[in-house]
Amino acid sequence: MYRIGIDVGGTFTDMVSVDDAGRVALAKAASTPGDPSLGVMDGIAALAAALGTPPARLLAETERIVHGTTVATNALLERKGARVGLLTTEGHRDVIEMREGLKPDRYNLRMAAPEPLVPRARRLGVRERLRADGGVAVRLDPRSLGRAVDRLRRDGVEAVAVCYLHAYRDGRHEAATAEALARALPGVYVSLSSLVLPQIKEYERVSTTVVNAYVGPALSRYLSRLRGRLAEAGYGGPVLIMQSHGGVVPIDEAVRLAAGAVLSGPAGGVAGSRYCARLLGTDDLIPFDMGGTSTDISLVVGGRAPLAADRGVAGHRVALPSLDIVSLGAGGGSIAWVDAGGILQVGPRSAGAEPGPACYGKGGRAATVTDANLVLGYLDAGNFLGGRTRLDSAAAGRAVDQLAARLGTDRMAAAAGVHAVVNTRMAEGIRLVSVRRGVDPRRFALLAFGGAAGLHATDVARQLDIGRVVVPRMAALLSAWGMLATDLRFEAVRTHLGDVKRVSASALCRVFAGMEAEGRRRLGPTFRGGVRIERAVDMRYGEQVFEVTVPLDGVDPAAPDLMAQVVERFHRRHEELYTYSLPDQEPVLVNARLAVVGELPALPEEPPLPPRSAAGPASRRQVHLGRWVEAPVYDLDALAAGQAVPGPAVVETATTTVLLRPRDRAVVTPLGWLDVTVT
């Protein structure tokens, strides 16, 4: 039986299968932005061809499919989501526009505030009011609600977000509103804050609920089409969707909580990185995922990837738990341009899959990172994607020449400049997730994956004094592969506000027990795997306006000194993050968090490379490393375990290329990965 991982990116759709013996097969297909499900089916056909079996047979012998999708992400980034209406407590419809009173760059006086996803005309107040303790101050007025619903029907909304004041305490008014909407607007997507994010802080709750409604219809349509196409092709097993928190959920749950998929694709890379850490026997990695459109950077510390609950995506707050990932508009398809000051810039605009870089020969004219790498000799024009695609060197040269003319320099200097600028941008992204958070990147290994990472990883590592770079054999498709090493995961949060001295251990345990019961129910009655419970709390000192998430791993909820342990952990965590703690102050407990993890069967380990003799270079090629150098070109799939490859050299596979600079030295691991020492 097979397990298939699917990662739909902006340029390529990546496919990975793993069989019961751990054997891995890889395939790529061009993404189809108009209908990503078509690219998925093309990818399945390519994967079947790589395995030498018909697509129908492959799907019939597949026990599960795990899918990371950019549909929700793109709907938000491109503002192509649903026509949304917002129902709020009367007098509170402008919370989404007032935000927190701050702009993304609070010191930029000329920066306009982000435009709300719901215009004011479709933000309607309803007469009702709950008190902060959940008591009813004003009962839900059916006439007020009816007028608001009629208005939304006339406006032709596709989705409705409902976010009443203090609904995190009691969702009865929101539930009644959902019933009215179902009667008056059948088929309209409804998003309730009491179900999406039942926690304190109005702006975070409203924003997350609106984002959920905005991306929900697009995600629902796409997953419905995908499920239908897979069924027609002969697949009858489960389709699990990668979530921003690093776990997977069934399609129906993904549609219900669509905002949980806004970082679906990058999360697969982090999941794969955690698995790589176990295989490499190291606890600390910097995942460095450079694809065609963007670069995603995160941390794996102690074998775990930290979660955050305050992410901003495209200027909009999504307060659901998500992996702490920094995304940069720096990928192989990122366009190089010259700003008004004559300074070379790279990204964030990308050539995407259509038309793609100039060298793709699909009509692109702007110079991209891929074009620059081709001009520099780092890529083989005749052996791109294993020879399935031929790159147009002349078109790449013309595009770089146009850039050079604007810079007042020559072709090679312009291409080298593009390469250097994008490397510097990515190094700064790593500093953002490490140095600026009190973590020294020099004690980490850089895990380079994504189709373009291998050409840039050692340069980026050198800028940060990182001495080790690891490039997995399936680097270009690691996100898809990593999704197969995930578990079912259901996150829950409940506000339980109060000074710690006034919060009893029994009350906190009751909150955790309620969330655990909800999570186990979502696993479903047919789930037979192991279940793991992860607990945490959000806490702060009394005068602070932000919370610190405190994991409670290893803490027994039944312990008689539970609250004392919680307080001690909070002080310790605050000091880790901010270099100080205030043990003489009584902290405040704000939210309880719990994850129910349904453990899926472990991914079979890939068998090691068979014994074979060391392989020599497959060819030689001129590469530009400040000057033209004739470098040996190796086929990674032909190299023997333990074989050393000194730089300068180029190591190629069907899906990626790795550049070794002078003084770099790579050693092939037993699994066929490259372990590079950078000096």
Topology:
Layout: E1 2-8, E2 12-19, E3 24-30, H1 36-51, H2 55-60, E4 62-68, H3 71-77, E5 84-89, H4 95-98, E6 123-126, E7 129-130, E8 136-138, H5 142-155, E9 159-163, H6 172-184, E10 189-192, H7 193-196, H8 202-232, E11 239-242, E12 248-250, H9 251-256, H10 264-280, E13 285-290, E14 295-297, E15 307-308, E16 311-313, E17 316-318, E18 322-323, E19 326-328, E20 334-338, E21 344-350, H11 369-375, H12 393-407, H13 411-433, E22 445-449, H14 457-463, E23 468-471, H15 478-482, E24 488-499, H16 505-523, E25 531-540, E26 548-551, H17 562-578, E27 588-598, E28 619-624, E29 628-635, E30 644-646, E31 649-652, E32 657-660, E33 665-668, E34 674-677
Parallel strand pairs: 1-4, 4-11, 5-6, 5-9, 9-10, 13-22, 22-23, 29-31
Antiparallel strand pairs: 1-2, 2-3, 7-8, 11-12, 13-14, 14-19, 15-18, 16-17, 20-21, 23-34, 24-27, 25-26, 25-27, 28-29, 30-33, 31-32, 33-34
Helix pairs in contact: 1-8, 3-8, 5-6, 11-12, 11-13, 12-13, 13-14
Structure description:
The chain is of the alpha+beta class. Among the domains are: 54 residues, no CATH class; 134 residues; 85 residues, no CATH class; 110 residues, no CATH class. Helices cover 31% and strands 25% of the residues. An 8-stranded mixed beta sheet has the order 19-14-13-22-23-34-33-30, sandwiched between helices. Strands 3-2-1-4-11-12 form a 6-stranded mixed beta sheet. Strand 22, helix 14 and strand 23 form a beta-alpha-beta unit. Helix 3 crosses helix 8, helix 5 crosses helix 6 and helix 12 crosses helix 13. The longest helix has 31 residues. The chain is globular, with a radius of gyration of 26 Å. It starts with a strand and ends with a strand.
